[in-house]
Design goal:
The protein is of the alpha/beta class and 315 residues long. It is built from ten helices and ten strands. It is 35% helix and 21% strand. InterPro entries: DUF58, vWFA_dom_sf.
Length: 315
């Protein structure tokens, strides 16, 4: 199958290449059967060592009272108990809502697809699924959408309008991508730094992108964000980034011009794999170091099914 490209005006309306707001809004009805809360199904990638890191919503101190049979001994306030001679416990209530920040990558490195859809489109779809799920959970949604030139910040709010605002910005940024644009790797760190500066504690950060340009500075920003907040990375990739399609002749297009790649492919395959590994291996390594969950989404498959499977609800 030829690689996807914006080759004519009709392709602009193709949701595989440039996503529409109607398409992202329709995903609300598919954003079910999964969550980003600490309690996860046993098959979920967020269980085990990852699940133990998920803080969930923060806690508000409610009162200090006498110990009652059945109270958790871990809630004992030993200072007050020793001072009064009677056992006292500190009572907390869970906050009614949580701040969830989506960090959505829409740089030119995401404008690539070999089979079903562009990575930029799949990232927008995954972001929409996450946004609708967060809204249905009663949490506040915000985040940053960034391309190779700008970062667009959406303040955390708990409303349908906030979700639509984010999806509208995604559509605009997605539609602006064109083959041939220069790529700026450091823009990832700019977006991460902007988000890190706005975080306080007990929030959830979900990065959705391909990790292009991830470096040592990214490591530091990830560590900074994850100290008092939860971080989940959703890596979007295309099968052709891992291994070139096994074709006698490969046609590559930027939307206006085409080149044919044929002949001895061994060296080309090796260089292609090395290029992919270079910008994702470092990211995967640091995530393992900090014990942070990684969800991989293949552009050649349905993102809804993959998200459900990763979070324990898929069949």
């Amino acid at each position: 199958m030829p690689w996807l490209s914006r080759t004519n005006n009709a392709a602009v309306d193709d949701n595989r290449i440039a996503v529409s707001l109607a398409h992202l809004r329709a995903l609300e009805f598919k954003a079910r059967g999964f969550s980003f809360l600490p309690r996860q199904p046993v098959q979920s990638i967020l269980t085990g060592r990852h699940g133990s890191r998920l803080r969930g919503r923060g806690l508000n101190f409610e009162e200090l009272r006498h110990y009652r049979p059945g109270d958790d001994i871990r809630s004992m306030d030993w200072k007050v108990t020793n001072r009064t001679g009677k056992p006292h416990v500190r009572v907390y209530t869970e906050e009614r809502e949580r701040r969830v920040h989506l960090l959505v990558d829409q740089r030119i490195s995401m404008f690539f697809g070999s089979q079903t859809a562009m990575k930029s489109v799949v990232a927008a779809e995954v972001a929409a699924l996450a946004a609708w799920r967060v809204l249905s959970s009663g949490d506040r949604l915000g985040g940053i959408i960034f391309d190779d030139h700008d970062c667009y910040t959406i303040p955390p709010r708990r409303s349908r309008d906030s979700v639509v605002d984010m999806l509208s910005r995604l559509v605009k940024t997605n539609a602006a991508l064109e083959a041939g644009q220069p790529s700026k790797g450091p823009q990832l760190n700019v977006a991460m730094n902007n988000l890190a500066r706005s975080l306080s504690h007990d929030a959830l950060v979900i990065y959705i992108g391909d990790g292009f340009g991830w470096d040592d500075r990214s490591d530091e920003l990830l560590k900074q964000m994850s100290m008092h907040n939860d971080v989940i990375v959703i890596n979007i990739f295309d099968p052709a980034e891992v291994e070139l399609p096994r074709l006698d002749e490969l046609i590559v297009s930027d939307g206006e011009m085409q080149i044919a790649v044929s002949g001895n492919r061994a060296r080309l395959d090796e260089r292609f794999r090395a290029s992919y590994n270079e910008h994702v291996e470092h990211m995967h390594k640091v995530l393992r170091r900090y014990g942070l969950p990684l969800i991989t989404i293949d552009c050649a498959q349905d993102p809804v099914t993959q998200l459900l499977k990763a979070l324990g609800s898929g069949r």
